[in-house]
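My main concern about presentation is that the manuscript never shows what a single data entry looks like. An entry of this sort, consisting of the sequence and the corresponding backbone structure tokens, reads as follows:
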Amino acid sequence: MNKQQQLIELLKSYQSVAVAFSGGVDSSVLAKATQIALGDKAIAITAVSELITTNEISDAKKVAKLIGIKHELFTVDDLADKKFTCNDKMRCYHCHINRFKLLENFCQKNNYNYLLEGSNEDDKGDYRPGMLALKEFKLTKSPFLELHITKDEIRQMAKDWNLPVWNKPSSACLASRLIYGLEVTPERLNQ
């Protein structure tokens, strides 16, 4: 069984899921795989905040529609958390803690068994404090990590499924463009 088939079989075992969906290649492949595996028992959910451009939100909507997965947007006030806005080296950890609390609450209220996120095997080699935060959540799963799926394999799945994001460059949130220690403010994000 190839990794694409393994992924779909794993997702079927989850029975119902929400996918943390940015519209990038990882979350798009995960959303497509869940739509194949679970149909209407899967939903893509996108956080809207000052950290995401309107173009990225628009792209996420288009990709979700192309995939045929239910899609919901919800607003997050990332700048309300001083631990996040102080912009230390754990910035991504604080962001993930806040967002995944909201996302898991969404899952519980709407009877989704799990929340899926798109970390992959290649992410293990990078400094990613946000991945530490994910270990603190009970409903959050990382299927690509579980199956040791790499970024190249994800891109190939996207290409196989004719997803237009298959060659989209990786992009981090706007806060990642500020050096550590420089406070995250709306004015700096707008630059």
Observations:
- The chain has a mean pLDDT of 94.
